[in-house]
Amino acid sequence: MFRLPGLLTRNMLVAGILLMLAGDFMFALNDAMGKWLVASFSVGQVVFIRSIGAFVILGPMIARQGPVKLFRLDRIGLQVARVVATALDTILFYAAVVHLPLADVMSFYMAGPIYVAALSHMFLGEKVGWRRWLAIVIGFCGVLVMLKPSSAALSVESLYALVGSVSFAVAIVLSRLLRGTSDTALVTWQTVGVGLCGAVMAIGDWHAASAVDYGAMLLLGIVSGAAHLMITRALKMAPASTLAPLHYTLLLWAVVFGVIFFGDVPGPRILIGAGIVVLAGLFIFHRQNVKDTVPPETVPKGVN
């Protein structure tokens, strides 16, 4: 009987790891579905319908919390900034995957934790030692390898992915500043913001779609919402420092789905750059763990 608490702890840890892996798989599936849809429909149309679908998941959460609490927000300026950053993250991701392979875009987003470490030092006053600064610089070099910034090779789509990944990191930092706001309120307002941006973008660029197509767009929001809930629950069951490195399985699934569904095989430049980024990110997580300064919010959430 005295072993029961230890057994429960191990079971919770295993359950947290499995939920994290399942959540990342769902996010990767969401991204692959999104790439398939934006090949036939405008980004604004897909994002708008996707946001409506998200309320299948958000509806019960809002009902349980109470709709009134959605409007009791502090630090309104930061709330708006976070919604803008999240909207940029989502829209630029889908704009990038219109023309770039899924794994290429996801590789840029894997640099998110590296940007978070740098932004946390500048805006949150968190101490970042020289080892992590070195990892940040090396990680950004990996981004440059993927970006290949020359007049002959630089593409608008690559810039979409780069700016989107930076927006993703900014949203995470702002989430840390707004940690007093409930998850339901944060996710609801970011979904509303993304949906409104999608609606504006879809004006004059709306394509006729079948019931199956609309169903797939709605499913995007449901899958993304379910993935977010899985990862949120995982963080309550296992340490963030244990779960954070598992987020890089998103890149693995992006490669697998890209090859299976789109016939996209990452080139050597993307693989090398992504490898540098992943290693730098893992080192940053390791140093955060050593310093015992890994709050749950540093674990990257879904890219869209």
TrEMBL record:
<feature type="transmembrane region" description="Helical">
    <location>
        <begin position="243"/>
        <end position="262"/>
    </location>
</feature>
<protein>
    <submittedName>
        <fullName>S-adenosylmethionine uptake transporter</fullName>
    </submittedName>
</protein>
<dbReference type="Pfam" id="PF00892">
    <property type="entry name" value="EamA"/>
</dbReference>
<feature type="transmembrane region" description="Helical">
    <location>
        <begin position="185"/>
        <end position="208"/>
    </location>
</feature>
<feature type="transmembrane region" description="Helical">
    <location>
        <begin position="159"/>
        <end position="178"/>
    </location>
</feature>
<feature type="transmembrane region" description="Helical">
    <location>
        <begin position="268"/>
        <end position="285"/>
    </location>
</feature>
<dbReference type="InterPro" id="IPR037185">
    <property type="entry name" value="EmrE-like"/>
</dbReference>
<feature type="domain" description="EamA">
    <location>
        <begin position="159"/>
        <end position="284"/>
    </location>
</feature>
<feature type="domain" description="EamA">
    <location>
        <begin position="15"/>
        <end position="147"/>
    </location>
</feature>
<feature type="transmembrane region" description="Helical">
    <location>
        <begin position="80"/>
        <end position="100"/>
    </location>
</feature>
<feature type="transmembrane region" description="Helical">
    <location>
        <begin position="214"/>
        <end position="231"/>
    </location>
</feature>
<keyword id="KW-1133">Transmembrane helix</keyword>
<feature type="transmembrane region" description="Helical">
    <location>
        <begin position="36"/>
        <end position="59"/>
    </location>
</feature>
<feature type="transmembrane region" description="Helical">
    <location>
        <begin position="106"/>
        <end position="124"/>
    </location>
</feature>
<feature type="transmembrane region" description="Helical">
    <location>
        <begin position="131"/>
        <end position="147"/>
    </location>
</feature>
<feature type="transmembrane region" description="Helical">
    <location>
        <begin position="12"/>
        <end position="30"/>
    </location>
</feature>
<keyword id="KW-0472">Membrane</keyword>
<keyword id="KW-0812">Transmembrane</keyword>
<dbReference type="InterPro" id="IPR000620">
    <property type="entry name" value="EamA_dom"/>
</dbReference>
